[in-house]
């Protein structure tokens, strides 16, 4: 991730289990009342141990300074930053979890956006903590999913709170800090907020350029994850302005997908080297071995079939590249939650939670009992109410800024965080658009400059005009570059009704490859005894897909598989 896992307390009985769980580690420390292992990619794992071996620190992830000219942290930078304390760490950019300890106290600190998390289990004579929830789940017997706290993660676009949905496990997330000592354990999370200042489009572009070129400035080759969307296209235009040519682009996916076709076209305009990774579906046995680790780390934010494309990360690392991509650029161009702005504005202003929920729902798989579903809906309502109540007054900051701040507080840690943490273990990669300083710049831009991607489009027009020649891609749909937000939404809705969506066979092929494994899971005693399942629904789902050849059930089956694999970890 890098990653770390440890025990604070005199009961060290879990040490051997932890050692067997982690096949290798780069750093370990053991005292009478403290045990810690850490590892991962060498650029996302930093650590230091004092000479007396009674104190030290580990930083997992990446740190980026909050100077006018930011830089990626090295060992010395981390040492200085951690020495300045929690408040300073909550001001820098990057994504990271930090563990700092001495002979009396252990501190756990997470980045201000909550992209990297730490999970804690408190027992009678020890505290177990780790950057990986799935490892905590394996080590603590009888862990259970709390249906109420799980509600938003399963029923909505993402979980809304910074809480844990596993009984007996607490989560350190956005602006998080925990202190563990023999007397007590204290845990706090702090919802992200920003200061107000005057920002113009050029200062925003300058900041984006600085964040996007960090590896190049530090002598590292860089690869841009290029798609057919506007965000990575803007990063492409920024890189084209650099005198340093030690960068390339890459795309992974299916050759027939419009995203890959468009990325290839964009590269052809400027003759940049473009790596295409079209990953094969592995043999079933290989997937069986690797899938629990993938699902465990992504924590039900990705379906099992997504595992196929992510195999490309190792190949990119073997090529020696650091990686950036355009993830969450929508915040800077006012695209998140526009359905609420257009169709549920009154409900939001009134804080009418039942009226808002249909615009935040995401159907995954209908597999639970009515009792469990009711608990999840109740938990979703309660969680959404709590997060909305904690937000600033809409009339003070404007509804557009309110929606984007709500996205930063709720979607960034819960949707972006798990995959970022997983991929940190394989290579140095980060999202320039998800740097707190840049988000602050974006939210201080006038809304008129953000809507319809005005800043992005103006920059591309001035500096890389050929990039305007290719259509834009959103999901499985393409639309003309000239279209604005509202017209493009109508265009894609029309294409959807006309059946003009690109239909990928990958999910169905993946599920067919895994048929025996899926049937075995379904028939396992553990699945049969899980009381929250509506077994009739699951029976119909599996027989409908495999026996009745109803491929429309692929989406639901894919999500049931994700849940069942995670549950059995």
UniProtKB/TrEMBL annotation:
Gene3D superfamilies in the cross-refs: Glutamine Phosphoribosylpyrophosphate, subunit 1, domain 1 (3.60.20.10), HUPs (3.40.50.620)
Boundaries of every Asparagine synthetase domain copy: 217-463
Pathway it works in: Amino-acid biosynthesis; L-asparagine biosynthesis; L-asparagine from L-aspartate (L-Gln route): step 1/1
InterPro entries xref list: Asn_synthase (IPR001962), ASN_synthetase/amidase (IPR051786), Ntn_hydrolases_N (IPR029055), Rossmann-like_a/b/a_fold (IPR014729)
The EC number(s) this enzyme carries: 6.3.5.4
Pfam families: Asn_synthase
Gene Ontology molecular function: any one: asparagine synthase (glutamine-hydrolyzing) activity
One biological process term in Gene Ontology: asparagine biosynthetic process
Catalytic activity: L-aspartate + L-glutamine + ATP + H2O = L-asparagine + L-glutamate + AMP + diphosphate + H(+)
Name the UniProt record assigns to this protein: asparagine synthase (glutamine-hydrolyzing)
Taxonomic source organism: Gracilimonas sediminicola
């Amino acid at each position: 991730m890098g990653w770390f896992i440890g025990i604070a307390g005199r009961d060290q009985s879990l040490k051997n289990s932890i050692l067997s769980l982690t096949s290798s580690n780069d750093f370990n420390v053991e005292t009478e009342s403290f045990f810690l292992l850490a590892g991962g990619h060498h650029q996302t794992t930093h650590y230091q141990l004092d000479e007396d071996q009674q104190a030290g620190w580990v930083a997992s992830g990446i740190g980026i300074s909050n100077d006018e000219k930011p830089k990626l942290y090295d060992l010395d930078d981390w040492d200085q930053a951690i020495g300045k304390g929690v408040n300073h760490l909550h001001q820098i950019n990057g994504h990271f979890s930090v563990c700092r300890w001495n002979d009396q106290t252990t501190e756990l600190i997470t980045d201000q956006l909550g992209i990297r998390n730490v999970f804690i289990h408190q027992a009678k004579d020890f505290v177990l903590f780790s950057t990986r929830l799935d490892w905590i789940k394996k080590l603590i017997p009888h862990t259970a999913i709390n249906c109420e706290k799980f509600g938003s993660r399963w029923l909505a676009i993402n979980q809304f709170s910074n809480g844990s949905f596993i009984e007996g496990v607490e989560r350190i997330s956005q602006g998080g800090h925990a202190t563990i000592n023999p007397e007590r354990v204290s845990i706090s999370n702090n919802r992200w907020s920003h200061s107000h200042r005057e920002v113009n489009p050029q200062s925003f572009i300058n900041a984006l350029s600085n964040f996007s070129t960090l590896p190049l400035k530090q002598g590292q080759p860089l690869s841009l994850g290029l798609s057919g969307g506007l965000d990575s296209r803007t990063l492409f235009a920024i890189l084209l302005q650099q005198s340093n040519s030690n960068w390339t682009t890459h795309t992974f996916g299916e050759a027939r997908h419009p995203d890959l076709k468009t990325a290839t076209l964009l590269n052809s305009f400027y003759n940049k080297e473009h790596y295409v990774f079209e990953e094969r579906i592995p043999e079933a046995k290989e997937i069986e071995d690797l899938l629990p680790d993938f699902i465990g780390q992504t924590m039900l934010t990705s379906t099992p079939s997504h595992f196929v494309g992510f195999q490309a990360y190792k190949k990119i690392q073997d090529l020696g590249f650091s990686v950036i991509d355009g993830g969450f650029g929508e915040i800077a161009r006012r695209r998140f939650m526009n359905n609420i702005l257009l169709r549920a504005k009154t409900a939001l202003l009134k804080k009418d939670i039942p009226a808002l929920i249909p615009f935040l729902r995401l159907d995954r798989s209908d597999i639970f009992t009515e009792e469990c579903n009711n608990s999840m809906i109740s938990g979703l309502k309660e969680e959404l109410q709590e997060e909305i109540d904690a937000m600033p007054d809409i009339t003070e900051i404007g509804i557009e800024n309110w929606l984007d701040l709500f996205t930063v507080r709720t979607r960034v840690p819960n949707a972006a965080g798990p995959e970022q943490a997983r991929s940190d273990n394989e290579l140095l990669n980060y999202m320039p658009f998800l740097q707190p300083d840049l988000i602050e710049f974006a939210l201080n831009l006038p809304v008129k400059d953000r809507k319809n991607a005005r800043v992005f489009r103006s920059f591309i027009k001035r500096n890389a005009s050929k990039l305007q020649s290719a259509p834009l891609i959103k999901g499985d749909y393409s639309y003309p570059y000239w279209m604005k937000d509202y017209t493009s939404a109508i265009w894609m809705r029309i294409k959807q009704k006309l059946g003009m969506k690109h239909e990928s066979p990958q999910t169905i092929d993946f599920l067919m490859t895994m048929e025996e494994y899926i049937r075995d899971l379904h028939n396992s005693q553990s699945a049969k005894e899980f009381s929250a399942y509506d077994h009739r629904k699951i029976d119909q789902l599996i027989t409908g897909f495999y026996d009745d050849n109803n491929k429309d059930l692929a989406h639901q089956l894919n999500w049931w598989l994700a849940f069942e694999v995670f549950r059995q970890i």
